[in-house]
């Protein structure tokens, strides 16, 4: 769902949106987790080859920091768009529900919350 109209001051960047969607989709796949675990295992097994040097440790520390830093923005972008889309759907449901039903449900909810 296109929710760009919700925030008119926001200029959508189509290539970033496509990238964020693709990365978020791929990051959630099981094979991505297996790949990440494989990289960590390969790094661990390569320790003796590099004498567990500072550079060897720096490789994994730097790599994981960069990936984490970038994923924060990708996930935030995706989550913001999902939240906006959900808000649009909720607004549509509220508008489509007759006012009488909403008043009845709200008063029933208030009465129920007072008794519990």
What's the number of helices?
4
Structural class: mainly alpha
Instruction: Summarize the main sheet.
Output: none
Order of helices and strands: HHHH
Percent in helix: over 70%
**Uncertain spans, ≥5 residues at pLDDT below 50?**
none
By DSSP, the count of extended strands is 0
- Give the CA-CA distance, first to last residue: 39 Å
Strand content: under 5%
Give the averaged pLDDT, no decimals.
Answer: 84
Shape, per Cα inertia axes: elongated
What report would you give on this structure?
This protein is mainly α and 116 residues long. It has one domain. 78% of the residues lie in helices and 0% in strands. The longest helix has 43 residues, at 54-96. It starts with 13 loop residues before the first helix and ends with a helix. The mean pLDDT is 84.
Top keywords for this entry?
elongated; 116 residues; mainly alpha; 4 helices
How would you summarize the topology of this molecule?
Blueprint: H1 14-27, H2 30-45, H3 54-96, H4 99-115
Helix pairs in contact: 1-3
Task: Compose a concise summary of this entry.
This protein is an all-alpha fold. Helices cover 78% and strands 0% of the residues.
């Amino acid at each position: 769902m296109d929710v760009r109209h919700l925030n008119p001051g926001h200029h959508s960047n189509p290539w970033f949106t496509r990238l964020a969607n693709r990365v978020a989709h791929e990051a959630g796949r099981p094979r991505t987790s297996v790949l990440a675990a494989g990289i960590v295992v390969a790094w661990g097994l390569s320790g003796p080859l590099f004498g567990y040097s500072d550079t060897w440790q720096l490789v994994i520390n730097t790599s994981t920091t960069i990936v984490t830093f970038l994923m924060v923005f990708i996930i935030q972008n995706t989550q913001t768009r999902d939240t906006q889309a959900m808000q649009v759907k909720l607004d549509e449901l509220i508008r489509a529900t007759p006012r009488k039903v909403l008043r009845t449900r709200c008063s029933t909810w208030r009465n129920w919350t007072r008794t519990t």
